[in-house]
Amino acid sequence: MTVGCIRGLLFASVALVTVGVMGTAPAAADPGIPGDPGTRCQSDAFGTTQWCDEPIREDGTWRRCWHTSGYSFSNGYGGVGGFVPATGRCVTIDAGSIPFGQPGHIDG
């Protein structure tokens, strides 16, 4: 088997895996962004992550949901690449439990 043939097979297998992953529907299309009309959202500097906060409750907590966009990557030569799927989740937090790197309560 020649080097060119091996490269072709490698490229074809990476392409098939990438198409297979991209063609698969996510388990939950809704990332769980709160539906409260008072919800306010903010994106990071790159626009890849979005945080959404519901209004602060009487006990000082609020529901925060975050969502990151999926993206594909490649080394530009057809050899190495892949796809990182979109992710997200919702948690209840207060002013003392905001994760590092995330904004305080988003007021709008």
Describe this structure in words.
Pfam families: CDGP. InterPro entries: CDGP_dom. By secondary structure, the chain is α+β, with helices and mostly antiparallel strands. It has one domain. Helices cover 19% and strands 31% of the residues. It has 1 helix and 6 strands. It has one helix at residues 3-23, and strands at 40-43, 49-53, 61-68, 71-74, 81-84, 87-94. The strands form 2 sheets. It has a 4-stranded antiparallel sheet, with no helix packed on it. A two-stranded antiparallel ribbon has the order 4-5. A hairpin with a 7-residue loop joins strand 2 and strand 3 (61-68). The chain is elongated, with a radius of gyration of 20 Å. The chain starts with a helix and ends in a 14-residue tail after the last strand.
Write the layout of secondary structure elements.
Blueprint: H1 3-23, E1 40-43, E2 49-53, E3 61-68, E4 71-74, E5 81-84, E6 87-94
Antiparallel strand pairs: 1-2, 2-3, 3-6, 4-5
Distance between the termini: 61 Å
Q: Characterize the biggest β-sheet.
A: 4 strands, antiparallel
Average pLDDT level:
74
In terms of DSSP E residues, the strand content is 25-35%
> Measured on Cα atoms, how large is the radius of gyration?
20 Å
Query: SS-based structural class?
Result: alpha+beta
- Give the overall shape, derived from the CA principal axes: elongated
The amount of helix comes to: 10-25%
Number of domains: 1
H-E order: HEEEEEE
Low-pLDDT parts are 15-32
Give the spatial strand order of the biggest sheet.
Answer: 1-2-3-6
Q: What's the tally of helices?
A: 1
Number of strands: 6
Organism: Mycolicibacter minnesotensis
InterPro entries: CDGP_dom
Protein name: CDGP domain-containing protein
Pfam families: CDGP
